[in-house]
């Protein structure tokens, strides 16, 4: 006799509720076949059979609360053979195939869900270990999901467009020698299996909570096995309903769409916003609603920087293996100015002002899916070459969608270069909770009056948007003047003037 016990539930989780038993006493079970499902405060845990045999006694019934390592049931080993004729025998090769779950990988700090954007494989396809199976999209980054084993993709659980949590199962791979042979027969029973499980019961705790909150089961999206509604699904639905109710009396944030003729409607194309674009829209609007945002402008003569760059760019690239651009000069100039006006590098936390004795510089980068802001940490400790290398590396990773969440968090100040797209002047929007962002623009030859003479100089408009709750006008203007002075006379950076 083999005991079936509660598996490890996760850090600090000590108990769970038995949600559903998939087998009854006397049923034949195979090794690793799902016996029951447990529900904790945060996740759902499936309990596989530790061995093949016949399910004996169920110790913990559905709805019971059990602790870690508690006895759930017993399996009588060696008795599965008698029940084997009840099921169609799979090819002998299939016996050597093992089911491997494809799970959502780590998404990053504070990221709890993602959307399945693309499946690169279909059910029945052969896959190699570490081959890309699908791509997930979170609020900020795309995450590729590699195959955990070589074999055949036998089931896709989360289809394209589905939203999954950080611990969800995406699919199943049949690995081992019999995987290929088992793939085709495995797909056939799917309709019958789906019909058998269509009436699967929701988690008891979910049923109780829906009754308490007066929610209809049809209004709750289930994320459990076969669409079963779990406790966390009810909590999420209740929170959404509460948010909608609270927001109902407020005026609509978006103006109603203008009437469209039938002819025009037939020529329109409606595309759902990506999660990244939705997050960008939400954060930018939050910044406008939260901060007392103001922008001050100045202009800088780029002659000195351009001459210095032209003089040393060949030697610089030969020695450091990276081109000398303008961004390292602007980054150095901002670091220099932030030392004199530290409130621009600070943030508000409740009724406190948090001053940062370091500079983690965000460098805004445009990508095919939207604007992202990778962060270069401790940029105040870096050389020109180190800054240029970091900017180049982060930019490539941003365009390829390879940035992690950690690489886009913790910035204290941001630089946005709209000039690369031809912008002559604009007002950048703050990147909360930061208190300042510098907007760079196009370098344009303009006539300037210098020492009583009209001369043509390469000029650039600069814009500093800042949070007026923490940064006064004097501080903002001083910051921008210091940036201007450092760029027009780069030697000041060396002399710390």
Automatic annotation (TrEMBL):
The record's keywords, sorted A to Z, are:
Acyltransferase, Lipoyl, Transferase, Tricarboxylic acid cycle
Q: Where is the Lipoyl-binding domain?
A: 1-76, 99-174
- Residues annotated as region Disordered? 247-266
Domain of life assignment:
Bacteria
Q: Which InterPro entries match?
A: 2-oxoacid_dehydrogenase, 2-oxoacid_DH_actylTfrase, Biotin_lipoyl, CAT-like_dom_sf, E3-bd_dom_sf, PSBD, Single_hybrid_motif, SucB
Pathway this chain belongs to: Amino-acid degradation; L-lysine degradation via saccharopine pathway; glutaryl-CoA from L-lysine: step 6/6
The cross-references to Gene3D superfamilies, in alphabetical order and at most eight, read:
2.40.50.100, Chloramphenicol acetyltransferase-like domain (3.30.559.10), E3-binding domain (4.10.320.10)
Q: Which Pfam families match?
A: 2-oxoacid_dh, Biotin_lipoyl, E3_binding
Q: What does this protein need as cofactor?
A: (R)-lipoate
Q: Which residue intervals define the domain Peripheral subunit-binding (PSBD) in the entry?
A: 201-238
Enzyme Commission numbers on file: 2.3.1.61
Q: Does the keyword Transferase apply?
A: yes
Q: Write out the GO cellular component annotations.
A: cytosol; oxoglutarate dehydrogenase complex
Q: Which GO terms describe its biological process?
A: L-lysine catabolic process to acetyl-CoA via saccharopine; tricarboxylic acid cycle
Q: Where is the composition biased (Low complexity)?
A: 247-262
Catalysed reactions, as listed in the record: N(6)-[(R)-dihydrolipoyl]-L-lysyl-[protein] + succinyl-CoA = N(6)-[(R)-S(8)-succinyldihydrolipoyl]-L-lysyl-[protein] + CoA
Q: Which GO terms describe its molecular function?
A: dihydrolipoyllysine-residue succinyltransferase activity
Tell me if Acyltransferase is a UniProt keyword of this record. yes
Family statement drawn from the similarity comment of this UniProt entry: Belongs to the 2-oxoacid dehydrogenase family.
Described purpose of this protein according to its UniProt entry:
E2 component of the 2-oxoglutarate dehydrogenase (OGDH) complex which catalyzes the second step in the conversion of 2-oxoglutarate to succinyl-CoA and CO(2).
Q: How does it assemble?
A: Forms a 24-polypeptide structural core with octahedral symmetry. Part of the 2-oxoglutarate dehydrogenase (OGDH) complex composed of E1 (2-oxoglutarate dehydrogenase), E2 (dihydrolipoamide succinyltransferase) and E3 (dihydrolipoamide dehydrogenase); the complex contains multiple copies of the three enzymatic components (E1, E2 and E3).
Name under which the protein is recorded? Dihydrolipoyllysine-residue succinyltransferase component of 2-oxoglutarate dehydrogenase complex
Q: Which organism is it from?
A: Lentibacter algarum
- Taxonomic lineage of the native organism: Bacteria, Pseudomonadati, Pseudomonadota, Alphaproteobacteria, Rhodobacterales
